[in-house]
Structures are given as structure tokens and as C-alpha cells.
Design brief:
The structure holds two protein chains of two kinds. Chain A has a single domain, classed as 2-Layer Sandwich (Folate-binding fold), CATH 3.30.2270.10. Helices cover 6% and strands 26% of the residues of chain A. Chain A contains one helix and six strands. Chain A is globular, with a radius of gyration of 19 Å. The relative contact order of chain A is 0.17. In chain B, the strands form two sheets. Chain B has a six-stranded antiparallel β-sheet. By secondary structure, chain B is an alpha+beta fold. Chain B is 19% helix and 36% strand. The chains are: A mainly beta, B alpha+beta. Chains A and B meet through strand 2 of A and strand 9 of B. Zinc ion binds next to loops of chain A.
């Protein structure tokens, strides 16, 4: 089980107490009626869904009840940073990362890795 | 002719009492409970009205004259008073600073879990660290027990108060007694 640090409870708590709240830092228009259909669609439906660093809202629903924000790596599921709701998006998360991270949102073509084979040849005796 | 009708309130866990493997499970006495929400400027007047210092540190509680206030969130407390004539809501009614106080006396019931293996029994369904260092006497937290949400308060090194919603009381009691069979 993951342990997630809640910035309000100020300690790590089991993930069962938390609920994901979708992408963070999506600002609602101050004049939503004036939005164009395209702008509203982008606001309402379109999410970045990157492979790598994701900025998300989380809620400590079975704890203090508070919403907060977290930076999580969608590849490793590791939480890199948590911060209180209303605080700005941290700019320095990309620094201080361990060296061999797959988190840096580098397009696969730019990574010096071979594309994994899609078809696996099954071998006898393998489950 | 008018017949006299007597109405008796029955608790959700009346007559349930178990001691298994040295762990005792018993329903707590009826209590007055208040769900209290307030901003920091309400702390002092509300504390004064309640007769205790509302805790501001996460996972802590305050106890004075049989009345406890449990920190549930940065602006949320659960007040529990087991004394016969306690009226925490009345005490709070005098406070003029903006706050919300809702009587939830009958929304919750509590189970007292005690015995040397009490923490193990609760840990069967609650993923928090209940070691004495992480969860000392007086520590409290809203958390989960199996499929339900509970508020947990440690009242002694080997005693916990498990508060749950009334309709979940049967589930909570059965869950804990099953767990006690396994420790
Ligand atoms: Zn929390």
C-alpha cells in the first residue's frame, strides 16, 4: 500500500484514506457564460494525461477531509511532492530528481532505448 | 379511554458484549456529540464555551471533565460528552463568532475495544500505524475500518474508542469480533 503525505495532517497516511480528484490547476473561467464552445470543451473535458509527471488533486477523504495537490509520476506511481490547495504549481519538481528517472517526459524517440518487442514468443511450460 | 404508551430508545448495539482472546468489545455509553466547524478566529471563544482547549495539532484531542474534543481536520472537531446532563450544543449557542455546530449524538455509536491486543484487532481493518509512538494515548483520527469510515481515539495504551455511524454499528462490531478471533 502507498503511503501518501497529507500536507494538512502533516504525516504519511495509508492510500485507502485518500481519493483522487483529477487534474489540478484547471482554472474555471470567471465568466463561464462568455466562453466559446471550444474553450469550454477544453476546460471541461480535455486533460493532459501525460506519461510521467502529473499534477493532481487529491482528497484525504477518510482523514481530515481536505483537498490538496500532488505531483505524481504516472509511470512509477511515486508521489514526488504534495502541497496545500491554493499554493502555486511547484516549479522545481524537475530538479532534485534521482538521476535515472523515466519521469522527465522525454518523448520515447528521444530516449536512448530500444522499442520493446510487441509480440512475445510463448515458450512451453510458461504459465 | 386513552392508553399510556411508553417509548424506549434502543441502542444499535444493546446487549452486545464480547471478550475474545483477551480483547473486550463493548458498546460505549450514550453520549452527546457535536460536529464543530470553525475558522481560527473562533478557536478561543469556542474553547472557552466548551471548557477545553480545542486542539489545533493534527491527530490530537483534548479532554476535560468527561468532555473530549477530537481534531478531525484543520477546521473540524468532534466533541463527545458522556456526562448525564451535558449539553455541549447549549454551551456553544452563546458563541457569536461564525461557526457551525451540529448535534450528531444519535448519528454515531461507539465501541470500546480494550485489551493488550486491542491495536492488533483494529489493525485487522485499519491501515494506520497504531504503535504507541505513532498513535499515543489521546491520539485520534478519522480513518477506515474494513469497508466503513470510523473515528478512532486511543483513551489508554490498550484501549480504543471506535466511533462509527449508527447504521454501520453492526458491521463494525462483527468485524472487530471476527478480528479478535484471529489475534
Ligand atoms: Zn489529512
Amino acid at each position: 500500500m502507498l503511503l501518501i503525505h497529507c500536507p494538512y495532517c502533516q504525516e504519511e497516511r495509508p492510500e485507502l484514506e485518500f481519493r483522487n480528484g483529477g487534474e489540478a490547476h484547471i482554472a474555471r473561467s470567471r465568466d463561464i457564460a462568455a466562453e466559446s464552445d471550444e474553450a469550454f470543451e477544453a476546460f471541461f473535458f480535455i486533460r493532459t494525461n501525460p506519461k510521467g509527471l502529473v499534477y493532481e488533486r487529491w482528497r484525504h477523504i477518510h482523514g481530515c477531509g481536505r483537498f490538496f495537490n500532488a505531483v505524481r509520476d504516472s509511470v512509477t506511481d511515486k508521489f514526488l511532492r504534495v502541497y496545500k490547495a491554493g499554493e502555486p504549481k511547484p516549479a522545481d519538481v524537475m530538479k532534485n530528481l534521482p538521476e535515472h528517472s523515466a519521469w522527465e517526459n522525454i518523448p520515447p524517440a528521444d530516449q536512448n532505448v530500444e522499442t520493446p518487442a510487441r509480440d512475445r514468443v510463448s515458450t512451453d511450460g510458461e504459465a | 379511554m386513552v392508553e399510556a404508551i411508553t417509548v424506549k430508545r434502543r441502542g444499535a448495539l444493546d446487549h452486545r458484549l464480547e471478550t475474545i482472546n483477551g480483547v473486550s468489545l463493548q458498546p460505549a455509553k450514550p453520549a452527546r456529540r457535536v460536529s464543530l466547524r470553525a475558522e481560527p478566529d473562533g478557536l478561543a471563544p469556542l474553547s472557552k464555551a466548551l471548557g477545553l482547549d480545542l486542539p489545533t495539532k493534527p491527530k490530537t484531542s483534548a479532554l476535560a471533565d468527561g468532555r473530549s474534543a477530537l481534531w478531525l481536520g484543520p477546521d473540524e472537531w468532534l466533541v463527545i460528552d458522556e456526562s448525564e446532563d451535558a449539553e455541549p450544543l447549549k454551551d456553544l449557542a452563546e458563541v457569536t463568532v461564525l461557526h457551525s455546530a451540529v448535534d450528531i449524538s444519535h448519528r454515531n455509536v461507539a465501541i470500546i475495544v480494550s485489551g493488550s491486543k486491542a491495536a492488533d484487532v483494529i489493525n485487522a481493518g485499519c491501515p494506520q500505524d497504531l504503535g504507541l509512538q505513532a498513535f499515543p494515548v489521546g491520539a485520534c483520527s478519522r480513518t477506515v475500518l474494513g469497508k466503513i469510515e470510523i473515528v478512532l481515539l486511543r483513551t489508554a495504551p490498550d484501549t480504543f474508542r471506535v466511533e462509527c455511524w449508527r447504521s454501520f454499528a453492526d458491521y463494525a462490531f462483527s468485524y472487530l469480533s471476527d478480528a479478535a478471533r484471529g489475534v
